[in-house]
């Protein structure tokens, strides 16, 4: 056979092409690719997530390339904020989108805009430095800045996810403003608070979802005061996944240990006192057990003060174990620490908190999704806790495509 006359293999077309703003370690991107999309680029100003993002998210369609990681700040450059890179980012995106559209003509363009949720969380202000406080205040404008990219590139579909309380008045109406601005730009939108466990994710995690479709393409909407997209509250094809089903297959490790063959199957160390506490904890119970253990009263002194002052117990989930037969509590950036929530392993013969690998599974990441650096806890826990669950992104990407009549 004449090799020179062989035709190159035909490229598999994606269902959509996408840009993932504020991509982090890639939870949204993983979901978009799993939904049959081709992710052109992920944008994040945190260089520490770059390796994790690139090495886990090779596309399955078109040229099967990795998404380009754009380490850029989406704010415009001003005298007051000289580090803004909005204009450079627009130039780079224009080139990347043009190239992708040449390979995939008439394929819809999706923007995932899942801004960091830290500006909208309830962490005590006492725990923040003035610099961090000002940074969070500025970051509440991320959705506003993202609409400038929507205005320029006019994507067909938009997906946004954030904390459940983002629509509360105390955050200045940023969610409502975002939705209204998209409407002004010609989109039919819909928003709803959903719980991740209803989408086959082994975790209770309430999140605000906003979806948008360019008005001429919208096919699933209702009429009220105006057009509004229907936002599903659950995936009708999924089942509730319990903790044991999600992480029960991982091999045993001890506190402060890591598995030699499974990346990120690493746990935090526990003091001797905390090992005594957790050894007495039963799955699903509150930390009231600490008052009467075989080792005596192991209640924390700070908890004793709360009980004395308010005549009731507070922080009942810390130093406790997950229930094996239910979804996990919300996975946070401190998910490896039993002092920060119900993060003790459900198996009472294992005296430890969940591992990073197990936390990732509870976020619906595949077991082969490796977070870097693999020899550290804190940076990886932060990536996992901040991520959009891939299964949630996959479902709503699929739904968005189904709402489009293109």
How is this structure best described in words?
It contains twelve helices and nine strands. The radius of gyration is 23 Å and the shape is globular. A seven-stranded mixed β-sheet has the order 3-2-1-4-5-7-6, sandwiched between helices. The two termini are 42 Å apart. The chain has a domain of 241 residues: 3-Layer(aba) Sandwich (Rossmann fold), CATH 3.40.50.150. It has 406 residues and is of the alpha/beta class. Strand 1, helix 1 and strand 2 form a beta-alpha-beta unit. The longest helix is centred in the first third of the chain and has 18 residues.
What's the SSE blueprint?
Elements: E1 16-21, H1 27-34, E2 37-43, H2 50-55, E3 68-70, H3 86-103, E4 109-113, H4 130-139, H5 142-153, E5 157-163, H6 174-184, E6 187-195, E7 206-214, E8 221-223, E9 227-229, H7 243-247, H8 272-279, H9 301-310, H10 356-362, H11 378-386, H12 390-403
Parallel strand pairs: 1-2, 1-4, 2-3, 4-5
Antiparallel strand pairs: 5-7, 6-7, 8-9
Helix pairs in contact: 1-12, 5-6
What does this entry show, briefly?
With 406 residues, the protein is α/β, with parallel strands linked by helices. It is built from 12 helices and 9 strands. The relative contact order is 0.14.
Helix content range: 25-40%
Shape, principal axes of CA atoms:
globular
Question: Spans of 5+ residues with little confidence (pLDDT < 50)?
Answer: none
Terminal CA distance reads 42 Å
Beta-strand segment tally: 9
* Series of secondary-structure elements, N-terminal to C-terminal: EHEHEHEHHEHEEEEHHHHHH
Q: Average the pLDDT over all residues and give the rounded result.
A: 91
The structure class reads: alpha/beta
> What CATH architecture of the domain at 11-237 and 390-403 do you see?
3-Layer(aba) Sandwich
Relevant CATH superfamily of the domain at 11-237 and 390-403:
Vaccinia Virus protein VP39
Give the C-level CATH assignment of the domain at 11-237 and 390-403.
Answer: Alpha Beta
Characterize the main sheet: 7 strands, mixed
How many helical elements? 12
Strand order of the largest sheet: 3-2-1-4-5-7-6
Q: What is the third-level CATH name, the topology of the domain at 11-237 and 390-403?
A: Rossmann fold
Q: How many whole angstroms does the radius of gyration measure?
A: 23 Å
Strand content: 5-15%
């Amino acid at each position: 056979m004449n090799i020179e006359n062989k035709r190159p293999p035909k490229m598999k077309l994606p269902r959509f092409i996408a840009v993932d703003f504020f991509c982090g370690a890639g939870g949204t991107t993983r979901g978009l690719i799993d939904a049959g999309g081709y992710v052109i680029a992920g944008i994040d100003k945190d260089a520490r997530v770059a390796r994790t993002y690139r090495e886990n998210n090779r596309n399955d369609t078109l040229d099967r390339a990795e998404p380009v990681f754009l380490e850029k700040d989406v704010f415009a450059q001003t005298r007051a904020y000289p580090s803004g890179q909005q204009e450079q980012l627009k130039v780079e995106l224009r080139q990347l989108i043009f190239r992708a559209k040449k390979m995939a003509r008439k394929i819809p363009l999706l923007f995932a805009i899942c801004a960091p949720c830290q500006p909208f969380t309830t962490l005590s202000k006492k725990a923040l430095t003035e610099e961090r406080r000002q940074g969070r205040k500025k970051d509440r404008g991320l959705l506003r800045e993202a609409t400038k990219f929507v205005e320029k590139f006019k994507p067909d579909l938009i997906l946004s996810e954030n904390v459940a309380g983002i629509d509360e008045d105390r955050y200045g109406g940023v969610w409502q403003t975002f939705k209204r601005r998209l409407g002004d730009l010609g989109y039919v939108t819909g928003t709803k608070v959903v719980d991740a466990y209803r989408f086959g994710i082994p975790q209770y995690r309430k999140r605000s979802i906003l979806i948008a479709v360019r008005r001429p393409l919208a096919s699933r909407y209702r009429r009220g005061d105006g057009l509004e997209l229907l936002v599903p509250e659950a995936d009708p094809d999924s089942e509730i996944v319990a903790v044991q089903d999600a992480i029960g297959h991982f091999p045993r490790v001890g506190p402060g240990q890591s598995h030699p063959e499974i990346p990120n199957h690493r746990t935090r160390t526990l003091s001797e006192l905390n090992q005594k506490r957790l050894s007495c904890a039963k799955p699903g119970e509150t930390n009231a057990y600490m008052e009467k253990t075989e080792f005596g009263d192991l209640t924390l002194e700070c908890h004793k003060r709360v009980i004395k002052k308010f005549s009731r117990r507070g922080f009942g989930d810390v130093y406790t174990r997950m229930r094996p037969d239910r979804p996990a509590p919300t996975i946070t950036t401190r998910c490896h620490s039993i002092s920060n929530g119900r993060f003790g392993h459900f198996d009472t013969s294992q005296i430890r908190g969940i591992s990073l690998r197990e936390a990732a599974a509870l976020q619906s990441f595949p077991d082969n999704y490796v977070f870097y650096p693999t020899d550290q806890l804190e940076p990886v826990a932060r990536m996992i806790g901040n991520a959009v669950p891939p299964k949630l992104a996959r479902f709503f990407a699929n739904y968005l495509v189904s709402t489009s009549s293109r």
